[in-house]
Amino acid sequence: MSKKNGKNGKQANYEPKPEDKFSFGLWTLANRGRDPFGDAVRPTFPPNDIVQVLGEIGAWGVNLHDNDLVPIDATPKERDKIVREFRAACNESGVVVPMATVSLFFHPVFRDGAFTANDPEVRAYALQKTMRAMDLGAELGAKIFVLWGGREGVETDACRRADEAVKRLREAVNYLCEYNIAQKYGYRFAMEAKPNEPRGDIYMATTGHYLGFIPTLDHPEMVGVNPEFAHETMAGLNFMHGVAQAWEAGKLFHIDLNDQYPGRYDQDLRFGSANPKSAFWLVKFLEDVGYDGPRHFDAHAYRTENCEGVKDFARGCMRTYLILKEKAERWNEDREIQAILKEISAAAPNVPKNGRYSEKGAQSLLAHGFDKDAMLRKRLPYELLDQLTVDLLLGVR
Description:
It is a single chain. The protein has 15 helices and twelve strands. The strands form three sheets. An eight-stranded parallel beta sheet has the order 10-8-6-5-4-3-12-11. A two-stranded antiparallel ribbon has the order 1-2. By secondary structure, the chain is α/β, with parallel strands linked by helices. The longest helix has 27 residues. A hairpin with a 5-residue loop joins strand 1 and strand 2. It folds into two domains: 317 residues, TIM Barrel, CATH 3.20.20.150; 59 residues, no CATH class.
């Protein structure tokens, strides 16, 4: 089923279209259900087959780590054959590659980190591997390059000073920006934060950490963030608030959509499956501000599923986003909701403006007499506003 009654009794279409810019990582559909306590439950899902399925279900894009596609020890000849066939599969399925990234966490050589590792040889190898991943992504047409430092952290701070790790990370990102310029790739780098796992603590724990780090780079205009729903929610944070700060700073280059229960390991649940209200506010924000980047689903199917269930998972991510997008449109058009918003934002007569500072404005503000009792009498009906939102989400409004 793809349609139901939408606003004003019209049929709402929840089938994805290319302009929705829905993308999935190769690693998401290829996830075989392996976890720390149990082996794989699904067969291997080859990259070219994944692309075919994504085209069938209406996805717009596919993203990849370097080794999702090309084995880490592939020869140049093997690498070129794999890339050539993958590009042909993308063209045949009408699927684009908007983003590429690099695995600096899976191979045991990165047991102490990559860009922040104590061993200079490991740091050099991490740069080489990333540059080659950038070459791969550029060959496939990617214009966004995500950097997730999954191993850039510690179990004990005895191993290095934290400020030294930040310096090493800055040096690496500066190097990659220069390589990007030299190769004329036109990448925008998107930094992805996470508080912990697989390390006990990861240095850049939240999107806010990266927003503080980026202005210290040689080319800050080239670097933004890739916030992930699960990563911020793990720490009990309000994901939409982090996304909003990134957007306001002009740094929302990419976004990872999934779901997560707070305070637990990284679950990567289907988008909207655990926190539909939080997902609603996120979708509403992205649509209200006109975010036009990829809407990337970094999640995977339940371990109970077979290959058909993986397709159900992917369809569900896109469908839920589109349902919540339609709900957001209805919220913005709801007369009672909009009247409440207008009421709570209305200013009393003669209130001095307090935007940009001026000497005249400051004097006017200092001279003004505020009636605190009158301000306190103004009703802020947030209980009603929230219940109207819940009514709308639950389909009774």
